[in-house]
Amino acid sequence: MASSLRGVARVQPNSKTLEEARSRTFDFFKKACRSLPTVMDIYNLHDVVTVSQLRSSIAAQIRKNINVTNPKVIDMLVFKGIEELTNIVDHAKQRHHVIGQYVLGPEGLDKDLGMQDQGSSHFLKRFYETNYF
Amino acid sequence: MSFLRALRRVHPLIRANFSNSRVTSRWISSTPDLHNPEAAAAAVPEPEFRPRTPVGGARIEIQNPDDSVEVFVDGYPVKLPKGMTVMQACELAGVDIPRFCYHSRLSIAGNCRMCLVEVEKSPKPVASCAMPVAPGMKIKTDTPIAKKAREGVMEFLLMNHPLDCPICDQGGECDLQDQSMVFGSDRGRFTEMKRSVVDKNLGPLVKTVMTRCIQCTRCVRFASEVAGVQDLGMLGRGSGEEIGTYVEKLMTSELSGNVIDICPVGALTSKPFAFKARNWELKGTESIDVTDAVGSNIRIDSRGPEVMRILPRLNEDINEEWISDKTRFCYDGLKRQRLNDPMIRDHDGKFKPVTWRDALAIVAEVAHGVNPDEIVGIAGQLSDAESMIALKDFLNRMGSNNVMCEGNGLNPQADIRSSFLLNSNIAGLENADLFLIVGSQPRVEAPLVNARIQKTVRATQAKVAYIGPPANFNYDHEHIGTGPQTLLDIAEGRHPFCSAILSAKKPAIIVGAGLFGRKDKDAIVAAVETISKLGGVTRPGWNGLNYLLLNAAQASALDLGLVSSPDVIRSAKFVYLMGADDANLDDLPKDAFVLYQGHHGDRGVYRANVIFPSSAFSEKEGTYENTEGCAQWTIPAVPTVGDSRDDWKIVRALSEVAGVRLPYDSLMAVRARLSRVAPNLLNVDARERSTISEELRPEFKQKLSMAPFGAAVENFYMTDSITRSSKIMAQCSSTLLKK
Ligand code: SF4
Ligand code: FES
Questions:
Q1: Beta bridge partners of B375
Q2: What does the pLDDT average to over B206-211?
Q3: CATH number (domain holding residue B602)
Q4: Is A123 on the interface with B (CB under 8 A)?
Q5: Residue B219 lies in a domain
Q6: Are residues B354 and B474 in the same domain?
Q7: Residues from chain A contacting residue B649 (CB–CB below 8 Å)
Q8: Residue B334 belongs to a domain
Q9: Per-residue pLDDT at B3
Q10: In Å, how far is A128's CA from the nearest CA of chain B?
Q11: Which residues form the 4Fe-4S His(Cys)3-ligated-type domain (chain B) (predicted)?
């Protein structure tokens, strides 16, 4: 009983207004930016990425949810962000996780080659990716 | 029913011996009314006469109403021709009779007694598989006597059958297991030791656990009747009965794998599949075999991305329900030696993986750097029609018309379909009463066509004459010559065989595709046609002039017009090998650029400069036309390996990179294109009759060379890139082909 109460007590109450949720988001972003130098050190990222690139990558991830207006949902997303950040700072992840997710992004290595395929058909673009289309 | 009587005799004894113990209550009685058959029979409700669905879609044609009889199965009237069996009557009435030894494609043995039914006025239950129907017979399949008879047979069978089910590969698809669940009793009375039998060595394909055998003799009958080898037999009597090969000898038949399917228990199972998977974890995909030109219907059983086994599928017109050992066991080749990345040969001669982008760009550049007529495309023996039409369209757009398919030889005749197809159809061969086999060894080239000939010879004593190198036949034949000289003799009426062909009602000539590679092919064909005219081999309603192809791709390649002559290779600068491993590249100039597109690192790779990985037949949807002109589809069973792509997609992508974009983006669009070139390829599972038009045929003025015919297939077990990389096939060729 005590243990479950302890868990409950730690969680912040929901934001009451959109304003409050917004400020929590900013707090989270600042916190993330502050931990970036440590992250660079832990995962030895100096030769693959710069702090400012990582920062914009975080900003981009936050901006992806720009259309969310429900404070509860924003709280939830911020919570997930904090969890991810803690995992990274605690070294619960490995180098390739960080590189794959925040340095290369979901498109992987092909991102910068996009220019080459300009003018080629939909078929060819799909062909380069997979056999199944 | 003698054993039943025996049981009754034993019964009081058992009771006497154990009367004071609890064993008395173990007297088996699954249904209480078994002890009182008469009372139970009286209680049978009035039968209703609703039409019933016959078992397995069974149907009969009554040709002569005078010869038909009417019998009653459980009160339901059935009409069927005289001479059919009680079991067939029951099947027509929609009653499935349990059985072990009966198999519709084998002779009747009647030795398992599982199919006992009660017939009114007969003193004891009869074995329905062996008993012919008599007019007015009243058959009862559901009475206590029939049930008790089955239960008794089951008990006797299980007496010596080991309790192996948890470690038996047949588990889950075992007839004995299923039927003992339905018809068996829930306990046995035998407490003695079970007998055990020494396992036999039948070679690298069939695993034997002979203790499990129930002596149904299906395998013995299969070997002698369908496979045509007298290798298996029954030894000993009574409880010492064993199935074996008499002497230390392997089973040397190209159809031996089928005994695995017909064995109702786990006595004969697949050796390569042993302990690999349980049948209920497998996903079945109905597909087509491509290792020979027969196009056997198969089911590919896969688990995840792996092909676990290949089984036959019923198709009366092509493979009945058999497949050859090569078809059944080549699947481990699909896991070995696979190409999974596009690769380019470096300056040091080693291949280095590159991306599709780079590979396509390099090939497109090279292709534009040579003269159009120095570009040559060769389709391999496993190519499907879609990729061949794409290859031909691509090369045509590049300005070249040098597209061919390996195995089709010099200057192939593609305009008249009857000049390269098995015109009487595989099933139609059963009507022939005389065979002249010219330069073909059907046993190794197309085992299932051979099985048909064997079946015909066995059923009707049809005569077989053979011209070619000494070869192995599993039926009576007459070896009348080794080369074109004999053909000439027959054509000119000097040979004793002429009288035989003249007196035959439906003679069939089978010309092997191995002869297509000879320089004097046209002259040979002309000679064969003279014989055919002479003997009336083609007549209204019967076209017995057959060509037996070797490879899965051959027929559709000819239909699509991939007909240039292999001579163009001499001046080629850019060679597109689409899975072609057996093309002769000796004459290729040293500086030519070779692109190999295929699924296996086989012969074609040795000379290649660039490799495109493609998908194998188990991974793609493709159209294949078999040797009788029947188009069929393969269905993907497993995902592709690594970064490989379907053949036609690669050609389509390359065409775009090379700036001559082909106008199709989907399989449907490719098939639409196919329908314009060869509409018959879209009529899946139908055979388009080829018209006989001798007059249209160009005149041949060629000299016949007197060199004897050669063998087209040297090693039955290894004929293409898949079978060559299969370990099981390698074992087979080392143990079974030992001279
Ligand atoms: S091995 Fe199988 S098929 Fe052959 S007799 Fe025994 S049970 Fe029947
Ligand atoms: S099936 Fe009739 S005796 Fe075996």
A1: B574
A2: 95
A3: 3.40.50.740
A4: yes
A5: yes
A6: no
A7: 127, 131
A8: no
A9: 46
A10: 6
A11: 145-184
Please report the atom of ligand 2 found closest to the CA of residue B216: 4
Highest mean pLDDT among B309-318, B409-418, B490-499: B309-318
Q: Which residues face B467 on adjacent strands?
A: B438, B481
> Lowest-confidence range among A91-95, B156-160, B248-252, B338-342?
B248-252
Cβ < 6 A, ligand 1 pocket: B 213-219, 243, 263-265, 267-268
Query: What CATH number does residue B497 fall under?
Result: 3.40.228.10
Per the structure, the complete domain to which residue B174 belongs is given by 165-270
> Using a CB-CB distance cutoff of 8 angstroms, which residues of chain A are in contact with residue B615?
131
Residues in CB range of A22: below 8 A, 6 or more apart: A74
Residue B126 clears pLDDT 60, i.e. is over it: yes
ipTM topping 0.95: no
Mean pLDDT along residues B301-309: 95
Q: Is residue B718 part of a domain?
A: yes
CB of residue B117 inside a 6 A radius of ligand 2: no
Q: Tell me, yes or no, whether B445 and B534 share the same domain.
A: yes
- Distance (Å, rounded) from C-alpha B454 to C-alpha B320? 14
- Give me the amino acid identity at B569: I
DSSP string, B274-331: TTT--GGG-EEEEEE--SSTT--EEEEEEETTEEEEEEE--BTTTTBT---HHHHHGG
Structure tokens at B223: 């070997």
pLDDT tens for each residue of B370-422: 999 999 999 999 999 999 999 999 999 999 999 999 888 877 777 788 888 99
- B590, B639: one domain: yes
Determine if residue B337 is left, alpha or beta; phi over 0 gives left, psi from -120 to 50 gives alpha, anything else beta. left
For chain A, give every domain's residue range: 2-107
Assess whether the C-beta atom of B115 lies below 6 angstroms from ligand 2: yes
A56–chain B Cβ distance below 8 A for any pair:
no
> What's the total number of domains in chain B?
5
On the question of pLDDT at B16 being above 60, the answer is no
Say how many Å lie between the CA of residue B297 and the centre of ligand 1.
25
Tell whether ligand 2 has an atom less than 6 A from the beta carbon of residue B110. yes
Q: Are B383 and B646 in contact (CB under 8 A)?
A: no
Share of chain B above pLDDT 90, in %: 71
**Is B327 in contact with B726 (CB distance < 8 Å)?**
no
Average pLDDT of span B351-368: 94
Residue (of B320, B198, B204) closest to B273 by Cα position: B204
Q: Which residues of B touch A129 (CB under 8 A)?
A: none
